[in-house]
Specification:
With 227 residues, this protein is mainly α. The chain is built from nine helices and no strands. It folds into two domains: 173 residues; 37 residues.
Amino acid sequence: MLWSGSSPLSAMRASMWGFLLFAGVAWLAVAWSVLRLEPADVVAVAGPVILFAALCEVVRALAGTRTWWINASMAVLFAATGVVVLLDQDSTYATPAALVGWFLLVRGSVDVAVATMNRGSDRTWGLFVSLGVAQAALGFYAAGPLARAADPVIVTLGALGVLRAIADLVTGLRLREVAAARTDVLRLSPEREAGVAGYSAGLADYESQPPARHRAETIAETDVAER
């Protein structure tokens, strides 16, 4: 049995689902706001959007999942990307589009990899694979020559907000479901539960049978009886 304890860190991790739900709602607000921007404001908004994505990765890392180190690494990477976008003084849309595409390619690829790794224990893995593929495809488009104008960058940022909103909302609800369950018992996947049940049944059958006797012991008992 696994005991989670009641330390401040454990309590903080148990409450991270609320922050992720808030982040999902915030992403929806970001998507709606970005789609209403004027073209001249796109360059100034792309940096804060990526920095907010880095903050969401920090929240995911603090949630204490087994891939926390991936989220922590992406938080640092996305923070650096956001700073580069903010410091860039180019009046064109090439740099923001390229770095937003970079963010989407990395985030989408990680979503696909992590969801595939968790396919045996997470029933929402198919949704995250779909989200990852959509983000990677959007990032490929944003990094290409077709997105070096105001309107494609606006649409890309809006789609980014919607995709990240879905991902954070679903992750927050899954963390809430896990936090509501008992934390002192190790929960197994259905396949492992079936394996443990089969092993227990076989062990019970073995213990219920009389112990096997060696042939030499039987012969010795027969000789004693004849004498």
